[in-house]
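Regression test case RT-17, inverse folding.

Input:
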C-alpha cells in the first residue's frame, strides 16, 4: 500500500504582508501531478491546513478545488485530513458530509458519547488498496485541545487525557482490524525531542509542557504521520514516526529546510 504524507500547508498565510496564494496554488498543482504520477492509495494531511481559524475565502476555495480535482483524476484515492492547532476543528468538519462523497474524511475534534467513552469509530478510517479491499485503518487524531481531553471524567491532567485518548483509540483499532490490515496514525502534535522553528510554529500550550512521548504509538502502529513541526524529521530516529514538514517555507528561518511530501510504502498491507 502506498501513502502520501503531508502537513502544515497554512493556506491563507501572508508573510510580512505578502500574500502567498500563488505559491500555495503552485504547490497544490504540483501535488495533483504527483498523485497522478505515483497513484498512492491514500493522502494523509496532518493538520494546519489553514493558517488561521478564519481563513480567507480564497484559501478555502483552494482546498476544496484541490479535493474535487484529486477525486476526479483518481476516484479510488482516500484523503484523510485532520485539524491542527491553527485550524478551527468545527470549520474543518463543516463540509464533512459532502466530502465523504469524494472519499475525503475531515476530522476536526474528538467526540464523547453519553456514557463518557470516546467515540472511537468516527476516528477510524478504512484505507482501501487498488483492488478496493481494506488494507489498513487510519487512526485520525486531530489536535487535542485541553478542554477536549480534561474534565470531570478524565481529570485535569492534559497529558494524561491525551494518553487516554490514544490508548482507547488504539484499543478500538486493534479490535476493528483483520489479519493483514495495517494500522496507521495521523496526528497533529509536538513530540518530545522534535526540532522547532520558533519563528512560525505556535506553541501548543504555554511553556511547551505539551511535548508527547513517542511511546504513545506502540509497535502495533505501522506508521505515524505527524504534523506541526515544519522541519521534516524522525521522532527518536524511528522511520515509522515522522514529520513530513511544511511544503513551502513559512518563515525566513525555514528557507534551508527540505520542503517535501513523504511517500510511504507499507509492505505488510495487502
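Golden output:
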Amino acid at each position: 500500500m502506498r501513502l502520501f504524507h503531508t502537513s502544515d500547508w497554512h493556506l491563507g498565510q501572508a508573510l510580512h504582508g505578502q500574500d502567498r496564494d500563488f505559491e500555495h496554488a503552485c504547490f497544490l498543482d504540483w501535488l495533483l501531478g504527483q498523485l497522478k504520477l505515483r497513484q498512492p492509495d491514500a493522502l494523509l494531511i496532518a493538520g494546519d491546513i489553514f493558517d488561521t481559524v478564519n481563513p480567507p475565502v480564497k484559501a478555502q476555495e483552494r482546498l476544496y478545488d484541490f479535493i474535487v480535482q484529486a477525486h476526479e483524476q483518481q476516484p479510488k484515492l482516500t484523503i484523510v485530513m485532520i485539524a491542527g492547532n491553527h485550524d478551527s476543528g468545527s470549520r474543518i468538519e463543516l463540509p464533512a458530509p459532502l466530502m465523504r462523497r469524494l472519499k475525503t474524511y475531515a476530522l476536526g475534534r474528538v467526540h464523547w458519547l453519553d456514557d463518557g467513552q470516546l467515540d472511537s469509530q468516527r476516528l477510524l478510517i478504512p484505507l482501501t488498496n487498488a483492488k478496493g479491499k481494506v488494507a489498513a485503518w487510519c487512526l485520525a487524531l486531530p489536535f487535542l485541545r485541553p478542554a477536549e481531553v480534561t474534565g470531570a471524567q478524565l481529570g485535569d491532567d492534559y497529558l494524561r487525557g491525551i494518553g487516554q485518548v490514544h490508548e482507547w483509540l488504539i484499543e478500538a483499532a486493534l479490535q476493528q482490524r483483520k489479519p493483514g490490515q495495517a494500522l496507521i496514525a495521523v496526528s497533529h502534535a509536538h513530540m518530545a525531542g522534535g526540532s522547532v522553528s520558533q519563528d512560525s510554529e505556535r506553541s501548543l500550550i504555554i511553556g511547551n509542557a505539551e511535548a508527547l512521548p513517542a511511546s504513545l504509538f506502540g509497535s502495533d502502529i505501522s506508521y505515524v504521520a505527524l504534523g506541526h513541526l515544519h522541519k521534516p524529521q524522525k521522532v527518536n530516529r524511528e522511520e515509522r514516526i515522522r514529520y513530513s514538514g511544511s511544503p513551502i517555507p513559512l518563515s525566513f528561518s525555514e528557507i534551508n529546510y527540505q520542503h517535501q511530501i513523504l511517500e510511504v510504502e507499507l509492505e505488510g498491507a495487502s
